[in-house]
């Protein structure tokens, strides 16, 4: 709730001198003509008012000067100054960033004018949020991890956000090799950043959440900032052709592995490998794979333990070792939907994978959904941007 400003007038001391030829009892004013009133010092107003308590962190601090111009404004809490800017006439100063919650601010301002200088000081306190907003998780966020050029940045908050525009405005991406990108809200707690094209390889990317004081919803304000540094490695791009039964792996544009594979047998939709741009998500050795939606004894039920498995979707697709289908690899599609490979080559892929590496699959009639695993590249960037709270 806005709080009225406090006007503080610093009266300039007046010194009288003999009027010389003026009428008896008149005084001069710094050279002013006889009988003219003294020029007052500038009037400085500060909002929030002095000694205000429980000020909202999204409140803007405003300092104005009438009858002169502001020469200096300092607003600080805990030794940290609040950024702000003057208007062109230097008669108004406005803060640029949210205030720190649960903090005491001091304000000092100086102005000068025809009537002399003026100085004023004030103080106010910000409220403690009933609902604190923080970053709960950032993926990728493992210290020392190197990720692929397709890697999105997935940010989870500890509270459901209703003022998504304000929160999104507080999120920043800094890259050594910048490329355009956009945020997309998946739900009230999860927002994902995806670039318009793959990250340029071999660089550091920094994610910053300037959340402190940001309004996230009713009675909800950010209570701390967050920073995560992400290492983007080489451009690992794998192409799987289900019709030729081959997988070609390139690193920074150079072919480093050619693999005979077997994809989904496609007798049902469930057993059809999805066509589209996949990202490697996680790995396991071994991984137990059980037919989805079936129990033991049902037709089509299976339970297989596979080695060197790299997940590429949430619908059960992996690139993994399959010694039982070596005879079909390079010749026929016989799997339940996974990309089967020779044990030594599957291990090689497993050993070299990073989360966010690109696996492009072509040749089937089943299209990967954009929200199946990390299939975010399935959405054209123009459509992806529509999920931003800042897009009109």
UniProtKB/TrEMBL annotation:
One of its GO terms (biological process) is regulation of cell shape. One of its GO terms (cellular component) is extracellular region. Keywords: Acyltransferase, Cell shape, Cell wall biogenesis/degradation, Peptidoglycan synthesis, Signal, Transferase. The active site is at 320 (proton donor/acceptor), 338 (nucleophile). InterPro entries: Big_10, LD-transpeptidase, LD_TPept_cat_dom, Transpep_catalytic_dom. Residues 17-42 are annotated as: Disordered. Pfam families: Big_10 (PF17964), YkuD (PF03734). One of its GO terms (molecular function) is acyltransferase activity. Residues 236-362 form the L,D-TPase catalytic domain. Residues 1-18 form the signal peptide. Residues 19-34 have a biased composition (Gly residues). Pathway: Cell wall biogenesis; peptidoglycan biosynthesis. Gene3D superfamilies: 2.60.40.3710, 2.60.40.3780, L,D-transpeptidase catalytic domain-like. This is L,D-transpeptidase family protein. It comes from Microbispora oryzae. The lineage of its organism: Bacteria, Bacillati, Actinomycetota, Actinomycetes, Streptosporangiales.
